[in-house]
Specification:
It comes from Rhizobium mayense. With 269 residues, this protein is α+β, with helices and mostly antiparallel strands. It is 31% helix and 28% strand. The chain folds into two domains: 113 residues, Aminopeptidase, CATH 3.40.630.30; 107 residues, Aminopeptidase, CATH 3.40.630.
């Protein structure tokens, strides 16, 4: 549920200074794993915009230095104009790297905080993976995109934009799809291996095929693939209140690294 006002505990208050290097690294690999079509910088702010896809991760301002608090109101207005030119509502992604002064300004200006998420990590080296059927990754972007849209029940109009995003991923990626003869695609996962880190960008199971072990099966395949490619740590992002997903990831040894949320400007709720 979205909240506003001074009762909000900022994301930066949840982290100690010795956690910031990990946050910076995971944010950096996250950008590479889910690339926006346009990336600009204003100081330490990364302005990510993608005209063809509405994902918040692809369309947001991401502050990357807690000490960057120069001309905050002017820069917010400047960023707002860029989002308007793209036809996108402006959102700010608040991680522990955001300046406390920026968060204070957002609160005073009546911005709304929403969509809290948890970034989780798991040690792949000693992880005991379930004894599940193994699936090999595909390199067919079109097949994966079609399957992903179908499994998620997403609008097919997003196909060109999603294909562009997936095709734009530079690090090695594994595109996993589980199909059955009658229903076609029933589960998908995208895993991006960036040196010793493996990002699980999505784990989706078609609504009518849940509770059949497919999420365990496809996630096991992705993590096994990443470990065989010498990844040592897996990471992912999940909604803070998505209890079924949190339970699944806990089973695989994932634990919280940090949290982030989004802010939207007044009138965009």
């Amino acid at each position: 549920m979205a909240t506003t006002g001074a009762d909000i505990l900022p994301m930066h208050a949840q982290s100690t200074m010795n956690k910031l290097p990990l946050v910076r690294r995971l944010e950096a690999v996250g950008f590479r794993a889910w690339p926006a079509s346009s990336v600009q910088y204003d100081g330490s702010w990364q302005v990510r915009l993608t005209a063809g896809h509405p994902s918040k991760r692809l369309n947001c301002v991401v502050p990357l230095d807690p000490s960057d608090h120069r001309d905050l109101e002017i820069r917010l207005e400047k960023a707002q104009r860029k989002f308007e030119a793209y036809g996108r509502p402006m959102v700010v992604r608040e991680t522990p790297l955001a300046s406390p002064m920026l968060v204070d300004i957002l609160q005073r200006q009546g911005w709304e905080r929403f969509d809290e998420n948890i970034v989780m990590t798991a040690d792949l080296v000693d992880l005991e993976l379930p004894d599940a059927l193994d699936h090999l990754p595909s390199h067919d972007v079109g097949r994966y995109v079609d399957a992903s849209l179908l499994v998620d029940g997403a609008d097919p109009i997003l196909k060109p934009a999603l294909a562009e995003v997936v095709s734009g991923i530079k690090p090695p990626s594994g595109l996993f799809v589980i199909e059955n003869d009658e229903a076609g695609p029933v589960a998908t996962t995208l895993c991006v291996q960036d040196n010793d880190l493996a990002g699980i960008m999505s784990v989706s199971v078609a609504a009518q095929h849940r509770r059949k072990g497919l999420a365990i099966e496809i996630l096991t395949s992705a993590l096994r693939w990443a470990r065989m490619r010498s990844a040592r740590t897996a990471w992912l992002q999940v909604g803070a209140f998505n209890e079924p997903a949190l339970a699944l990831y806990a089973r695989f040894g994932f634990h919280e690294a940090y949290r982030y949320c989004y802010w939207r400007s007044p009138g965009e709720a």
